[in-house]
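A quick aside before the break. I want you to see a complete sequence-to-structure record at least once, exactly as it would be stored in a machine-readable document. Don't worry about memorizing anything.
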Amino acid sequence: MASPVATTPLYEALLLGAVRARAAAREARQPIQVALSQLPALGGAKILSPVLDSLVRFYEAALGRRMTIGSDAAASGDESLLLDLVGCRTTCAEGLECSAAAGAGLDCALCSTRVMLMMSAE
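That is the input. The structure line, written in tokens, reads:
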């Protein structure tokens, strides 16, 4: 069953923006959560900053590497898979080959992200 909030274009754009802002901040050696909290798309939902940071950390742990970041024109395969995972269009078992521990951690981060996205939509 797809997540009712995480599959909307608004939240997909928010997630892609957060992933890319996080990557840029990490590359520039800037505080990641500060960069995320400054995203205009978060508006008053700055509490999502640590949630989104954790999501990407667990996702990269499951990937076993840093995410590949897409361009303005197109999402990368890693970004598309993350959107599918958050939107419940695929599962960790279907989309990733990772250890049970990494998969369990990512599953928890995905659930937390979905809950926080739904709460921020209220």
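Two observations worth writing down. The two ends are 21 Å apart (CA to CA). The mean pLDDT is 87. We'll return to this after the break.
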